Amino acid sequence: MRFIPLSESDRAHMLQTIGVASVSELFADVPDSALRSELLKIPEAMPEFDLAEYFENLAETNNPARPRNSFLGAGAYYHHVPAAVDQLLLRTEFFTCYTPYQPEVSQGTLMASYEFQTYTAGLFQMEVANASMYDGASALAEGVIMASRIRKRPKIVMSNLVNPAWRRVVETYTRYTGIEIVTVDDVATGASVSLVEAVDKSTAAVVVQSPNFLGVIEDLGSIRSACDAVDALMVVAVAEPVSLGILGGPGMFGADIVAGEGRSFGGSLSFGGPGLGMFAVKEKLARQMPGRLVGKTRDSRGRDGYVLTMATREQHIRRERATSNICSNQALCATAAAIHISLLGKRGLKELAEANLSACHYLADRIGSLEGFERACQRPFFNEVAIRLPVSPKVVNKRLARAGVTGGLDLSPCYPELNSTMLFCATEAHSKKSIDNLVEVLSEFEK
Amino acid sequence: MEFPDNLVYSKEHEWVLAEEGVATIGITDFAQGELGDIVFVELPEVGADLGRNATFGVAESVKTVSDLYCPVEGEVVEINSSLEDSPEQVNSNPYDKGWMIKVKMADPSQLDDMMSAEDYAKYIKESK
User: Considering the domain boundaries, does residue B115 fall inside one?
Assistant: First the structure.
């Protein structure tokens, strides 16, 4: 499409037609005090060569996390993405964030989405998965709204060990909907054990994350029993799906709705984005599910074909009574995830999970052996662990930064009672040497 | 299109068969024709209390989803669970096998406000 800006004569003609003398007359209602009298202080135009140099210099002031020397996880985990993933994504057929409507021209993209759904359902051990959501946090929020709608009850009992940022997104989504979020504090024990006491007959759903924000693997079986007692739905958040290479999927424990963050597969950390929402439900709830769903069928000649299915839930058909207002999704990131998972395969996924587990357990053992350092709780964990430090996490992270190491997350802003506790993450990216190096710096703080 | 004389009809295209204080409710031949092939019918649970003109469920066809309205106030005493596996009965047999719910009416006089077969046929003709 060509873009031709208005000329002076176009402008004059338009002003004359509507009977206004000047453009500024159109803004007569804006008080002078609200108008800027001078131009923005934007530098003069630069030659392209100088401009490139300017941004190079600016970029050099960044201190990008080097995967081997960063122990920061807390919802965004570094994993090695095989080069084949990006190479395949460069195919123009895939280069869209939209789920295509027209099956006659979109079989490849629809099949990729279908594969993603299949992997999601398999990982979560659920019956139906959709073609993706924006990210884990918004997927969880949609799951909460869906649960409340199904049960026609106002109360949602949520563990405060669900990622704090996700909880804020849930609160934002549910504000003004009549949904009441009851957040249960289980920080002291590190696992959602007292949560069940808050569950009653007005509870639509119970929300837990596993592994939770402190890295601890939750006892989903006991959560299921608490839900069954009052016929509430069980909503499980999965922030690190790599863990499912060795842990049973939430579906195995009877989860009704599972919302996950899929960036660990095929994604990058890139200043925190983009995320990839994974969403799966029990089959009987499929008609209440948000988002796009790709189905597999046969065409008139008996060949396999892929189409959007159950679209009548969606807003372009069902308008204000749609299950959600999500329309476009993360098809490109979902395709990346599907490619990554397919390259890993079943065995590769298990090995990847084991590498994460052993790296983090090595880290926990080494740091735990330092005088004055100890694990915040003695519960099973996957690739993250909360450790109490003998000094302030701020001091520790400053020292680590000087050694070129990005330390863990200072937990005190999220949980004031964990005022000297740091959340460390280790994945397959961390070598024994990089962990030993971390421990060596930390040993300077031994008591 | 057929509109049996023993039934009464609503503007939302539901029909009611009243027998001994119980209203059997479904959607009309006209409604099923407008919706097209019905693939799913969502019904309330037995025991649910429905207000007059409350939504009692949803009919989903290949092209749209439509709310189902209960023209009389009352308690759901029975639902047509065979629609779960064979929703197409609503298309093929809207007044018989395609019935949806039975409601024990709180106030049978509410039926007086509904249309006769003749009036309903006229209503459809006019609204077309």
Answer: no
Query: Which chain B residues are Cβ-neighbours of A287 within 8 angstroms?
Result: 40, 42, 60
Q: What is the mean pLDDT of residues B49-71?
A: 91
pLDDT attached to residue A312: 77
Asked if A312 lies within 8 A of B65 by C-beta distance, the reply is yes
| pLDDT, mean of residues B90-105 | 96
Q: Tell me the CB-side half-sphere exposure of residue A230, using CA atoms within 13 A.
A: 22
Name residue A386's beta-bridge partners: A423
Residues 6+ apart with CB under 8 A from A122: A249
- Give the residue numbers spanning the domain of B85: 8-107
pLDDT surpassing 90 at residue B73: yes
Q: Tell me what the mean pLDDT of segment B59-65 comes to.
A: 86
Of B40, B42, B64, the CB nearest to A317: B64
**Crossing angle (nearest 10°) for helices A432-442 and A331-368:** 50
- Output the average pLDDT for chain A: 93
What is the ipTM score, two decimals?
Answer: 0.72
How do residues A339-349 score in pLDDT, each as one tens digit? 999 999 999 99
Give the tens place of pLDDT for each residue, A12-43. Answer: 999 999 999 999 899 899 998 898 888 888 88
pLDDT the model gives residue A2: 67
- Residue B29 located in a structural domain: yes
When divided into structural domains, chain B yields a total of 1
B61 vs A: CB within 8 A: yes
* Domain chopping of chain A, boundaries: 83-340, 345-445
Residue of B nearest to A323 (CA): B65
Angle at A306 between CA A302 and CA A309, to 5 degrees: 115
Whether A419 and chain B come into contact, CB under 8 Å, resolves to no
Q: What distance in Å separates residue B71's CA from the closest CA in chain A? A: 21
For residue A65, the model assigns a pLDDT of 67
**Would B22 be classed as within a structural domain?**
yes
Q: Per the CB < 8 Å rule, is A312 touching B42?
A: no
Q: Is residue B127 part of a domain?
A: no
A279 and A290 Cβ atoms separated by less than 8 Å: yes
* A321 to B60: CB separation less than 8 angstroms, yes or no: no
Token pair, residue A439, equals 């421990």
Q: Where are the alpha helices (DSSP H) in B6-98?
A: 29-35, 82-85, 89-92
pLDDT of residue B62: 82
Q: Give residues 92 to 121 of B whose Cβ lies within 8 Å of A.
A: none
Tell me the residue type at B93.
N
Provide the CATH topology of domain A345-445: Aspartate Aminotransferase, domain 1 (3.90.1150)
In a mutational test of the A interface, the residue from B37, B58, B65, B81 whose CB has the highest number of chain A CBs within 10 Å is B65
Q: Which residues of chain A fall short of a pLDDT of 50? A: none
What distance in Å separates the CA atoms of residue A103 and residue A295, rounded to the nearest whole number? 11
Q: For chains A and B, count residue pairs whose Cβ atoms are closer than 8 Å.
A: 16
Architecture per CATH, domain A83-340, reads as 3-Layer(aba) Sandwich (3.40)
